Amino acid sequence: MAGFDYTALGERDFRILSLAPGKFDEPLKGELIVRPIDPYIDEASKHDGELPESADSYEAVSYVWGSNDTPRSITISSTEVSITENLFTCLKRVRLQDRPRQLWVDALCINQANADEKQAQVMLMHDVYVSARRTLAYLGEEADGSSDAMDLIERYWRVSIPNELNAGARAFLEDSLGKPVPDAPTGAEAELPAEGDKRWLAVSRFWNRAWFKRVWIVQEFILARDVLMICGEKTVSWAQLWPATIALEEPESPPWPLIDEKGEEVESAADLMANMAQRLRFYQLGAMRGNAQEDGCCGDDDEHDHEHGDGCCGGDDEHEHDHDGHDHGKEAAEGSEEEWESEDEDEDPKRSTELLSLLLSFREVEAADPRDYYFALLGLAADGDREEFRPDYSEKFEETALRFGRTLFHEPFSEELLDHAGIAEHLNGRANKFPSWLPDFRRPWHRMTVADAAESEAAGETDFDFGFDPNDDEDVLLLKGVKVDTIAQMSGVPRAAHLHADRPSIWVKKDILTLSKILEKIPGFEKATYSTGESGLEAVLRTLTFFRAEAEEEEVPMATLKLAYRFCTAVEEDDLDPERAERDVLRREIELAGRSAEEANEALVAAAQILINRVFTTRSALDLVLAKGEKYVAMVPDGCEAGDEVWVMKGCNAPFVLRKSAEREGLRRIVGTAYVHGIMDGEAVEEGVEFEPVSIH
């Protein structure tokens, strides 16, 4: 706040904004009060859930700063202070008419011009949010039918979850609530709009609001004792919306469509997996809140007496709230329950997750300042108080990333950082000077990794081995590995400009057909015998599907995959009709085995769907690039080249593609992880193998 004279803070002090009462259209006024945080922490430790209101209690505000293009103002102690339009409207919404409201608002309560204070206050964020009476989450003003969308979201889960087909979701929610889920409403309340109705598009646009994407809301939401969500004049408890995210795939995806950043329906299947993260983000946040509350840190009461400002519904309102304690019965952010829970029972349950796990779990969030990808999670991280992780806004992002990265490699499971790194991830135009062994969190993450998609132990039971040479540059990571092959030939299947998400089967079928034509041009491919004893085609099919089974512990028969491959390649046009004449030979083969014509058609479609489902899962997130080496066939990241090397690094689950550095002799760069059929279960590191040192920059 340029021009405002801030009072200096002590090491454990923070500021509270006392927002003066007023009507919605009156000018904003307030005072900043300096308080020590420790008495608030002591008082908070005596209570579960929302803290009782007192003369000293305060509420934290979670919001999106927004653009400075049209600055507004608030008067603080007779000084006019510039604030963003979004914060201006937010404060008008939460202001009370009859008495001051005590708030913690980062843009005003922290001297943003003082880097030292900023850094110190970031380290207090955990205490600030845990000690607040509750958090007010301002999502923005009414737009795109958001008020009706919020009502529809709640109605959707109250109708859908009691459905007998949703038994798993219902059991999970009942366990979370600690009480039975009410039976589904009847009559008009039970009627939901038809799929395709424009009201579902309003729901998608509500979930797509900027607030849900901010990196800072991760700790603001999870640490809060309760969260009141404010959207224009409408306010609801977070627990009135969150249960809708539980039933994302039970029994099928929800009726609201996937949309892009502009709020338009997604037409490109290339963006499908990225937009699925949009649906799951709020689920993940709620599930993590629940895990902490199970351990007794806090919980939402069944009923709250909500205070609303002049612009928020105009008075007190009671809502029956859903508890949010969760056993986390399904995966969140590609991690199991164990990843969220600490083994130390004496730890703060709100800080039971290591920074490394948080960074990898919340890669799809956004930050105006890229350094905040690290700093914004410290208040939530079990190791967030480490001196090596202190925020430093005088550093460039690259310096922050390197400092944090070198420290994170000393944490358990640090090899997972490598799974998300590599220069293949820099193909969006960013300068290629970032260490290839670190994920670049500035880059939108729309891809899964081989480690995500394939259950593998390429390095067997070896332990991860790394180091940093004090005599070398700071950006050089020392690893040990075994070189297993060199890429001799690349076979890429290009992506179409528009890959329609509503026709994924046709899209994947076209990919397989294109691939078949590429394979036909490889000399001797049909007669080749793979190192596993399989034919070349069998090896390719296993590679395309990451050798994954139809059911857990069950391998998909090769005969099924080959039948599906022949089904997809028998017809040039976009067609999956089993009765096409081109598929007569396939039908007759099945009929000769004693099946009827109808059963033969069903078997063809079922086989094709197995292959299509396997390829779609990886193809929608990974580029379909087959690499043929001297010994192996692999699925590798787009951006690999002939001459790149395939390595298995000690202690790492997936093989890596490395490239000799063109700038620094003797060093290599990580291109990315790969699926290499025949070495995914430790075959390359059998007893007696010699690991050699590899220097990565």
From TrEMBL:
Q: Which Pfam families match?
A: HET, Het-6_barrel
Which stretches are tagged as biased composition: Basic and acidic residues?
317-333
Ranges for domain Heterokaryon incompatibility = 58-220
InterPro entries, alphabetized: HET, HetReg/Transcr_Mod
**Residue ranges with Acidic residues bias:** 334-347
Stretch list, region Disordered: 317-351
Identification of the protein by name: Heterokaryon incompatibility protein 6, OR allele
UniProt source species? Colletotrichum fructicola (strain Nara gc5) (Anthracnose fungus)
What are the top taxonomic ranks of the organism?
Answer: Eukaryota, Fungi, Dikarya, Ascomycota, Pezizomycotina
